[in-house]
Structures are given as structure tokens and as C-alpha cells.
């Protein structure tokens, strides 16, 4: 039996992000209920962790061939399967490349300007640097999935 395709690093990142978001949100609700005050940092941390969760989840979905795509053209034109798969890969690379470029540029500017987050006063680049890093990880998983589809190691249908 073949080993299932997975992205363990991203799966752990997504799980940790979801658990931490849940815990700090619950703690904030409980504290607000009993004290009429709230933790100021929860929104800032939650938004950051949602970005991690989104990209890590997209990477897991990409690697396991469960990411959304339109397979109608592949089914209608089976002879064009390979060029269509390559076109899908190219479109993904284009989008992820833009995310890496602009996300990296944004992180660099935040680093240069020494801007700080409003809630905790932490350097903003600590939050933003994850955008291009995780987009690169999604690119790696996209490429792995594309190669596996082209070689027939995974089904075209999720």
C-alpha cells in the first residue's frame, strides 16, 4: 500500500494556529464577561494566525490534490490534459509569485521603516514575513502535485 500524500509541516502549523486562535478568543470572551475588559492583543494575534492558517491549509489542500480547480476542460478535452495541467500550474505560479514579490516587498518596507504593531508594539515585519514564506511553501506543494498528476501518481479527481 502506498504512503498517503501529505504536508506534515503545514498540517502542524494550521492545527497550532487554529488551537491558539480558539484559546485566546475563548479567554478574551471569558475575561470580557467577568470583568468588562478585554485583552487588547487578541485581534492582532488572531489576524496573524488566520494568515498562517489560510496559507498552511491551502498548502495541505494543494499537496493532497484537494484544492479547488476547474476540471471541466480536462474532462471535455482529455487530449489536452497535459497542457491544461501545465496551464493550471503556470497560473498558480503567477499568483503565488505576485504574492511572494509584493509580500516580500511589504515585509522589507516594514523592516526598513521599523513600524510597530498597534496592539503589542511588535515589529510589523514579524507578522508580514510569513506571507512570502508560506506562499513559497504553497508553490512547492503546487509543483509536487502537478508533477504527481502528470506522472499519474495521483488521480485527476480529488
Write the layout of secondary structure elements.
Blueprint: H1 8-35, H2 42-63, H3 72-76, H4 81-113, H5 125-128, H6 130-150
Helix pairs in contact: 1-2, 2-6, 4-6
Notes on the protein architecture:
With 158 residues, the chain is mainly alpha-helical. The chain has one domain (8-150). It contains six helices and no strands. It has helices spanning 8-35, 42-63, 72-76, 81-113, 125-128, 130-150. α1 (8-35) packs antiparallel against α2, α2 packs parallel to α6 (130-150) and α4 (81-113) packs antiparallel against α6 (130-150). Part of the tripartite ATP-independent periplasmic (TRAP) transport system. It comes from Ectopseudomonas toyotomiensis. Keywords: Cell inner membrane, Cell membrane, Membrane, Transmembrane, Transmembrane helix, Transport.
Amino acid at each position: 500500500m502506498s504512503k498517503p500524500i501529505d504536508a506534515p509541516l503545514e498540517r502542524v502549523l494550521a492545527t497550532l494556529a487554529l488551537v491558539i486562535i480558539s484559546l485566546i478568543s475563548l479567554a478574551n470572551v471569558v475575561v470580557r464577561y467577568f470583568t468588562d475588559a478585554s485583552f487588547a492583543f487578541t485581534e492582532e494575534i488572531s489576524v496573524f494566525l488566520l494568515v498562517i492558517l489560510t496559507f498552511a491549509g491551502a498548502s495541505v489542500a494543494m499537496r493532497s490534490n484537494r484544492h479547488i480547480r476547474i476540471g471541466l476542460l480536462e474532462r471535455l478535452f482529455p487530449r489536452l490534459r497535459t497542457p491544461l495541467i501545465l496551464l493550471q500550474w503556470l497560473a498558480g505560479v503567477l499568483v503565488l509569485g505576485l504574492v511572494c514579490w509584493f509580500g516580500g516587498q511589504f515585509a522589507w518596507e516594514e523592516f526598513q521603516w521599523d513600524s510597530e504593531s498597534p496592539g503589542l508594539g511588535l515589529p510589523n515585519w514579524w507578522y508580514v514575513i510569513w506571507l512570502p514564506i508560506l506562499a513559497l511553501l504553497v508553490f512547492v506543494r503546487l509543483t509536487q502535485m502537478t508533477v504527481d498528476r502528470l506522472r499519474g501518481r495521483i488521480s485527476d479527481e480529488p
